[in-house]
Amino acid sequence: MKGRLEDHRMLTGQGRYVSDWNLPGQAYGHFLRSDRAHAKIASIDASAALAMPGVIAVITGQELVDAGLKPIPAAAPFKWQDGSAQRLAQRPSLACEVVRHVGEPIALIVAESAAQAQDAAEAVTVEYQDLPAVITAAEAMAAGAPQLHPGAPGNLVLDFVGGDEAATNAAFASAAKVVKLTDYHSRVIGNPMEPRTAMGSYDPAKDLYFLHGTTQGTGPMRGQLSAVLGVPPEKVRIVAEEVGGGFGVRFNAYPEYGTLLYAAKKLGRPVKWVGTRSEVFLGDEQARDIHHSGELALDGEGRILGMRFDYLSNMGAYVAFTGAVVNTLGLVNVNCGVYDVQAVHVRGRLVLTNTVPTAAYRGAGRPVASYALERLVDEAARELGLDPAEFRRRNMIPSAKMPYKFAGGFEYDCGDFEAVMNKALEQSDWKNFENRNTDSKRRGKLRGRGMATYIEMTAPGGFAPYDQAHLTWEADGMLTLRTASHNHGQGHETTFAQIVSKVLGIPVDRVRLRTSEPEHNFVSNPTGGSRTLHGLGSAMHWASLEVAKNGMDLAAEHLESAVQDIEFDLGTYRIKGTDRKVRIDELAKKYPGRLDLDFKERPKVPATFPNGCHVAEVEIDPETGECDIVSYVACDDVGNIINHQIVEGQMQGGVTQGAGHIFLEQGIYDSAGQLLTGSFMDYAMPRAGLVGGLIVTDHAVPTATNPLGAKGVGEGGVTGSMPALMNALMDALRSAGVAHFDMPASPRRLWQALQSGRTKGEHSPVGKVGSN
User: Fold this and answer.
1) Do 521 and 449 contact (CB within 8 A), yes or no?
2) Partner of 224 at 20 to 30 A CA spacing, among 113, 259, 474, 727?
């Protein structure tokens, strides 16, 4: 098979994105947004706007409250240390009484055209009473800091712990050496290709709400919007064909969505809103912005006895639906990494500030945990004078111990971490680094190498009880697959077709995938957490087996034979020992509906544990601070691979995204809460050439927890690349006397660090004017 099934549609402009949808009689919306970070809303005067040509309505937060709309729900997977529930920081669809971050929507203007709605927004007069703002988590927790929510005193949403504190304390008490490291994980702004867009409509005859929206899956969004509207989930339909990227920031329901649905019902016509790139920066969920410190307790032989981690997470102005999940479960679920350590303790604090809320972004907490651990492991190797690979090898969980129940309470079912590392070391020519380093010195460059041996849990838990797969044979001979998990670049259309084709023996180009159709209301987990292949892909596999089995009776009837005499192979039913046969697609066409299947209410497959070893080498020009990634090897165990092209693409994209975070990206606010990096003039995004000498390879250890033997792949590139690249940077910087450095490694910041041999107090850059 050449290329992906969806590629021709994408490359020839035939994709139908959310902004391409239009409905009869639709109106257009524009959101008026707060221009300040923290203030009371004294009054909103929309009289001038309502008098302008084409303006239909101006909807405010107070109107939504009066109509009974509820706050957007937020998940709460952990409790406080004393057992009390996560504190409330509820997010309204439109700000009512108080605005808490720049860009928060406070009114929806509806008009006959998008231009009229935008013009009218400028005529709405809002009077504010300014309140002091806090930007960093540390500032928000300080005594006397402004309070953002009455339900979260001290601006603290959650103070949780995980792991075994007593065992960890005992390990540190007996340690021959303790290694410590504190780091900052900078704030990033997810920028999918398609700005966020939505259209709300309402069918009074069926009492159904329809949202055409940028989504990663209908399930959680439908559930969140039903809670906002106060209706059962089956009364909400989410529709999308193409979505230009997700990365986690398209997982949750946003304030605009409930507002548009309310407006559509009130006005009796669809209301369409197409967001701008500026609104992406000011309104879409951001990510990371976490300070973390770690400690390793070591014995006299350089073996890890125990680990401690402390995370301080900036949640922004509200707790988004996945915000607490990312900053709790995402940080602790594989807290010992690939190391044979049972004494691990984690503490995390979730803090509110006057910034855009943070939530899921590619990796959803796992890159942060991997970064904290793998940076600390490299520091331990340095202080012990050991080769970083040797120190890891000394502490790795051996394959003979699999399955391995680790300190987080879960169990690694399989894995061969040392074999994966060995392959990466060989591919990167690790042992001959000094030859390359000598050449770099001759050319006046600083060279460094770094590695990371990561592991992550993919598809932990889940938002739906099962993954529904609907298979329908069409009159034209095509097989249509339907589900609610959305494809927004991952190649689901191709991969599912390959899985089904292998079982049913029909060509992949005779299989098509449909998601988010308005007439269907499926149950399925969304696309997120690297879950789709082994989760929904397994459901597609089992569903195909069930279709093939159901066809045995039909084939026997058609061939006038006993069922026990029928065999099935490569899409054909045959009477054993004869040439009498019939293909499955022929049967389906002759007997419409008899081989259709609604595969639902089957158990989900459990989580998987993909892992890998990434090795990077960088060169820094000390005169300019310019840094090049000169080689990068990613060796990953993602289990059995269905489509190598897609896996390689996922890894290449993930590694590049991680490199962008390390070298380029940082969301910066000034002390008043104004976003200083609100456009691509100020916020740099990674490009394809950022990672030089990239080699993607694999070492598969198939899992037995699902029928495909597959593990997740979508987020491994980010999870492995960030610590590997920073370890390489630090290896180069130490040779010039720089003892500590935090991302992002822009040329200016690298040059400043090299000039002084230290970081000049830039450990906490977010919220400081000019700290980029």
Assistant:
1) no
2) 113
DSSP string, 229-288: HTS-GGGEEEE-SB-S--TTTTSSPPHHHHHHHHHHHHHTS-EEEE--HHHHHHHS-EEE
Instruction: State the burial class of residue 313 (Cβ atoms within 10 Å of its Cβ: 0-12, 13-18, 19+).
Output: buried
pTM for the whole structure: 0.94
Return phi, psi of residue 38, to 5°. -155, 120
DSSP 657: H
Task: State whether residue 61 is helix, strand or coil.
Answer: helix
Residue type, 315: M
Q: In whole angstroms, how far apart are CA 439 and each of 417, 430, 434?
A: 32, 15, 9
Sign of the CA dihedral 243, 244, 248, 254? negative
The amino acid present at 541, given as its one-letter code, is H
How many other C-beta atoms lie within 10 A of the C-beta of residue 603? 9
Of 142, 31, 148, 176, the C-alpha closest to 91 is 148
What the block records as the tokens of 716 is 């491994």
DSSP SS3 for 562: coil
Q: What is the pLDDT of residue 2?
A: 67
SS3 of 428-475: the string is HCHHHHHHHHHHHHHCCCEEEEEEEEEECCECCCCCCCCCCEEEEECC
What are the mean pLDDT values of the chain's consecutive 10-residue runs (772 residues total)? 81 90 97 98 98 98 98 92 93 97 98 98 98 98 97 97 94 98 96 95 97 90 95 94 89 96 98 97 97 97 97 97 90 92 96 97 91 98 98 98 88 97 98 98 98 92 85 94 88 95 96 86 87 93 97 96 95 96 96 95 90 98 97 98 94 96 97 97 93 97 96 94 98 95 96 77 36 34
Strand partners, 316: 352
